């Protein structure tokens, strides 16, 4: 148990009958009239839904101890993704629903963070950007380099994103894992 005065960004709270909510941001407010309160923005750990919630200052809230472990993606076993704990070398199979959109950017040997609560994986967190090779994209036409257009490109993971017209098959690019946007070429 903690009070609303102890809140920090990234802290996980257990609210509404055991649901896990992560604190995205919080603000202590002391109006001139009335009692102080804490305005928060909370993100549901499993669904990703974001809500605003206000607590009276000093209110007790239940915190959840979520273990964030450094892991490495090893291989895909049927539908499950198998991750290896980099400190203990234990293997942990995780279902595709828990992996979510991170599956679009996962390559064997990819380092990531897996959040675990009561021995159950909650979500997989990738670095903000990853480097991937373009498996296939239509060739660019001479003169297309000046326009700001994009074309579809299939990454080595099988996921498709939009890239600038001058990108060719076999190039290594940097991709934002949160939005799926092209960030730039990687000089090898």
From TrEMBL:
Record keyword Cell division present: no
GO biological process: peptide biosynthetic process
Domain Translation elongation factor P/YeiP central positions: 68-122
Annotated metabolic or biological route of this protein: Protein biosynthesis; polypeptide chain elongation
Keyword Cell wall biogenesis/degradation recorded: no
GO CC terms in record: cytosol
Stretches assigned to the Elongation factor P C-terminal domain: 130-185
InterPro entries xref list: Elong-fact-P_C, NA-bd_OB-fold, Rib_uL2_dom2, Transl_elong_fac_P/YeiP, Transl_elong_KOW-like, Transl_elong_P/YeiP_cen, Transl_elong_P/YeiP_CS, Transl_elongation_fac_P
SUPFAM superfamilies referenced in this protein's UniProt entry, alphabetically: Nucleic acid-binding proteins, Translation proteins SH3-like domain
This protein's UniProt keywords: Cytoplasm, Elongation factor, Protein biosynthesis
Domain of life: Bacteria
Record-level Gene Ontology MF annotations: translation elongation factor activity
Compartments, as annotated in UniProt: Cytoplasm
Cited HAMAP family: EF_P
Function recorded in the entry: Involved in peptide bond synthesis. Stimulates efficient translation and peptide-bond synthesis on native or reconstituted 70S ribosomes in vitro. Probably functions indirectly by altering the affinity of the ribosome for aminoacyl-tRNA, thus increasing their reactivity as acceptors for peptidyl transferase.
The family this protein is said to belong to: Belongs to the elongation factor P family.
Protein's name according to its UniProt entry: Elongation factor P
Protein's organism: Streptomyces mimosae
């Amino acid at each position: 148990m903690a009070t609303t005065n102890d809140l920090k960004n990234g802290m996980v709270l257990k609210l509404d009958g055991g649901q896990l909510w992560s604190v995205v941001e919080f603000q202590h407010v002391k109006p001139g009239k009335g009692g102080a309160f804490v305005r928060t923005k909370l993100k549901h750990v499993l669904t990703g839904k974001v809500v605003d919630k206000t607590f009276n200052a000093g209110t007790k809230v239940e915190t959840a101890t979520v273990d964030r472990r450094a892991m490495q993606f090893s291989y895909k076993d049927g539908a499950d993704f198998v991750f290896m704990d980099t400190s203990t070398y234990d293997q942990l199979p995780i279902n595709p629903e828990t992996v979510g959109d991170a599956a679009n950017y996962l390559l064997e040997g990819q380092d990531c963070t897996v959040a675990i609560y009561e021995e159950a994986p909650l979500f997989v967190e990738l670095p903000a950007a990853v480097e991937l090779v373009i498996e296939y994209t239509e060739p660019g036409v001479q003169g297309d380099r000046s326009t700001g257009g994009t074309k579809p490109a299939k990454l080595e993971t099988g996921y498709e994103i939009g890239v600038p017209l001058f990108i060719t098959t076999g190039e290594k690019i940097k991709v934002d894992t949160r939005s799926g946007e092209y960030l730039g070429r990687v000089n090898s």
